[in-house]
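Researcher: Please predict.
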Amino acid sequence: MEIMTTYWMAMAVLIPAFSSAACGILMAFALQDSQTWEEKKLKKVVLAYFATEGIAWCITFFYPFCPKVFVWLNVPCLLSYALISILFYRVIRFLTRLGQSENFPSVHYLLPGLLAVVMLVWSLFVPFDTQVEIVKGKALVFPQGYEAYARFFTFKLPLRLLFGVVYYIFTIVLLVKYYKKADKQASIHKPAKWVLFLIGISLASLISSLLPAFKPRGEILYSLWTLLLTSNIAVMQILLGYHIIRRKYLLYYIPTPDGGTTIGAGSCFQRRRHAGTLNRSRFESFIRDRKPYLNPDYKITDLVEDLDVNRTAVSFFINQTYGINFNRYLNRLRLKELEQLRRHPDNQGKSISSLTAKAGFKDFRNYTRAMAVEREAGTEKSPDRKKKGASE
């Protein structure tokens, strides 16, 4: 039973190492397909994250199974444990920068570097056999005369947890700032759901890594918990790698004055090519379920991203199907919404101006313009109808 437990432990620990290697190789190939220097920079950061995660888990494998090798890899282990959270935070920071330049302060790497130097220098004055004894003791053995070093030597897991907590706090603060800023700029989409899901998985993995510390070591339960933890990390890596390689990380889309579009206001990303298909059933289901017309700043570029369809195809579809342009189509939906609001019992006695915002109009002036356009269109049609009736 103990042999089987050890075997499963080894396999579980290597899961994120293998996933890191696979995702890292794919990301390295994807570097050659980068369309801009910023995209290439992001891929390099993600590649560094995969490499650091893979190194950390490979070295972790040696901890219970080959203590002597672990001693030689002690400093890279400490460094990788600290850098994982920093690099993950940098990836999220890159994705939510709202057009600002990606200047990541090097001070973030200062503390991990200092800790690694201290560990390296201190290890030169500690006998190799003593370090092996500390590893075999699983943080429970403190050789006489080297108690302080032993405690520092076994501080890696708490250090990883500490960096994880600190940088998750940074990530939460970052997301709060992003949402506040995105709310002020209605043309900016909020972060994609996969990014929030990614952060959730990563946070769950961090919390999960704490729980086995309260369980007896060497038990099957500990192995199963480790398997769950490492599987979550592998899923997180695959999710991140897939979206970066497929360029599904463009979290905000801002129209430019010349009618074009840009990602992140000032960045040099190119527009994503849209390959989705559009038909009346899909289009009207989206309008009915999502009601995008309730957003007064909703534009055709937003619809292009939501439906993943080429802008020209969207514009042509609306003109051919409904005989009007995109803006007029939205305003018609808003007028219908306004009529429904006026008929609602709770809105009896309320003025139209107080309901226009709820219907999706930016202000009362936009409502009056939309009404004028519809009246004018109705006036143009009425003479034709009279002539048709007279001829009959």
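Model: Residues 202 and 236 are 7 Å apart (CA to CA).
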